[in-house]
Amino acid sequence: MNGIHDMGGMHGFGPINPEIDEPVFHADWERRMFALWTAAFAAGMYNDNEFRFAVESRPPADYLNDSYYEHWLICMEQVLINKGQFERADLEAIWANAGNAASAGNAASAGAPSVEGAKQALPADQVIPVFMTGASARVDADVAPKFKAGDAIIARNLNPAGHTRLPRYLRGKHGTIEKDHGVFGYPDTMAHGDDETPQHVYCVRFSAREVWGESAPSRDSFYVDMWDDYLDPA
Amino acid sequence: MADHDHTEPPSDTALRVKALESLLLEKGLVEADTLDALIQLYEHNIGPQNGAKVVARAWSDPDYKARLLADATPAIAELGFGGVQGEDMVVVENTSEVHNLLVCTLCSCYPWPVLGLPPVWYKAAPYRARAVSEPRAVLKEFGVEIRDDVEVRVWDSTAELRYMVLPERPAGTEGLGEDELAALVNRDSVIGVALVEGA
Q: In this complex, is the C-beta atom of A84 within 8 Å of any C-beta atom belonging to chain B?
């Protein structure tokens, strides 16, 4: 989608302002939110692409105003409701008592049965093995590459309303295939519950001038990983 | 549900997170000990010190460096690092001719196993907007001046590959061991917004 999240090349956001000696988390609720998100992710309750699309779909003003872990909170609630893991009413029952934080745990809707398709929680003793191993997004599928290193390409001018990992600043631009990374699932379909549509992902080089014009330094470049379906031969 | 029945979420974000946590615990979708283990892992055990060790090994051992640049994931695993958000790693080397810089313009992709969780500025609009279009100005804000005859390469992490920069080894560090070298390497130099200063 052509959303506010697709920020490459935008103006007006000001200086970067890094925080000196920044802590990993800035509040205890951020710590809890990170753990909730990763635990639910590891239990298979959503995939990266689905979640990224939920974040991208936030109203643009909210996307800019809310903090990173606020996005995680609001989108995690929404994604889990959409997937039938619980209902909004379950949260509302707790919110109704939220002024009294101490009672929140007890107020969790006692009656609601687990819905069909509820996932298995990740046990604590699996945190290290699961997170230190990970799960590659590579797909073991016999798919022929459409391009090879050295090929000239044009990034397609695609403007889907759904999720895509083709940034706006590259659409219609000429680049060169640097390397074939192999076969991966396709985020544009996986974000929407569709199949993996496995295809090759390439590292593609673009010159800074091709994208930003003559004022860009002539020797500068950038490298972007792109799926077959984002590319046409040039 | 009709609008008049809605209970609005608490305006206090901490209470709203607590509500979600209590619901997920109640439904058996997460376990309390698991949450604590995840926080321990990513707040204390995994962080830029991992990436620093990879850099120091590469500076000290030419064969390791060659393996790291050729196929980063197994080379990083030799030091015991790997996993979520680093399953398919690529290492790019800074030289006297090339300076590399990492960004994720679309979200916040970052190599967790070697750097831990990203700082706020990496996830925020100014860096994501500007790193691709004016990387030299961005670097200058971080105090790094790149000569005109050096190529700046920006790596926008749009797919599931995760990147790390192998910074240039500073002059005058020839006599240092791996631990001493690792102590010179910070997070920003592995993102590419800083150079490693000598001892």
A: no
